[in-house]
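#structure-requests
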Amino acid sequence: QVQLVESGGGLVQAGGSLRLSCAASRGTLSTYFMGWFRQAPGKEREFVAAIAWSIGITDYADSVKGRFTISRDNAKNTVYPQMNSLKPEDTAVYYCAARGRGYSRRPDEYDYWGQGTQLTVSS
């Protein structure tokens, strides 16, 4: 079983950058497909980005493509979304999740979730 812990959220001005982290406090992520999702108040949880840990293939939602980059560090067992050119509409709680059965953009198809970290982008 995997336990995920996100960190790195905070308050950023529009146009700024921030890097979130998702580390496994228990278990290894090397066999998982890792996803990042976000949920703004009153909205459903939505897909942001994902990476297939073993082969490094990435996928991005259209709303963040070209601004966000997801990567992983094998030695640290951690996945990072680097978020640039942030916009107020990026404000949300960001969650990382792990899926053991391949690619998906659907949050209900992920097996393990972190507790979430708040990102607020001011205009």
